[in-house]
Design goal:
150 residues, alpha+beta
Length: 150
């Protein structure tokens, strides 16, 4: 238990430091990417998800699906006129990424192992979806709307 708590605290400290570094550097997404225009530079190269992502654990490391989910969420939040820095991301013990804005949970996504799930809220009810990354990207607008309400 002590080791788990130390890992959690370390993750929180690293995430906080990375977010402060991101704020200090005033990292922005180029206008062409945030407006969806075609450019030679892929969004993967310009969206700083590393500052958002909790530190890898012994059991779970960031995979391609999680990276792409974070990039797409980052872009949609920016395009919605919101600051991605107001969102905190935590890794749960089963590999799920939990997203919090202020004191409210926005949703969860699990893109580790075989069963992939996404949790979002619709009309005050928690809804858990099963599928793959493309299925989840369609529901990301629900998350952005929830963030706007916070």
């Amino acid at each position: 238990m002590v080791d788990d708590r130390m890992l959690d605290l370390t993750d929180e400290i690293v995430t906080t430091i990375e977010k402060r570094h991101l704020d200090a550097a005033e990292t922005t997404v180029p206008a062409a990417v945030s407006t969806g225009e075609q450019t030679d530079l892929a969004p993967a190269a310009v969206v700083p998800v590393e500052a958002w992502y909790p530190a890898d654990t012994e059991k779970f490391q960031r995979n391609e699906a999680e990276t792409e989910f974070l990039r797409q969420l980052y872009l949609q939040v920016r395009n919605g006129g919101l600051s991605p820095n107001q969102i905190q991301v935590h890794r749960l013990s089963d590999g799920t990424l939990k997203f919090i804005c202020g004191d409210q949970e926005i949703g969860r996504v699990r893109l580790q192992k075989r069963k992939h799930t996404m949790t979002c809220w619709q009309e005050g009810q928690e809804e858990e979806l099963e599928g793959e990354l493309p299925d989840f990207l369609q529901h990301m607008t629900k998350w952005v709307e929830r963030i706007k309400k916070v």
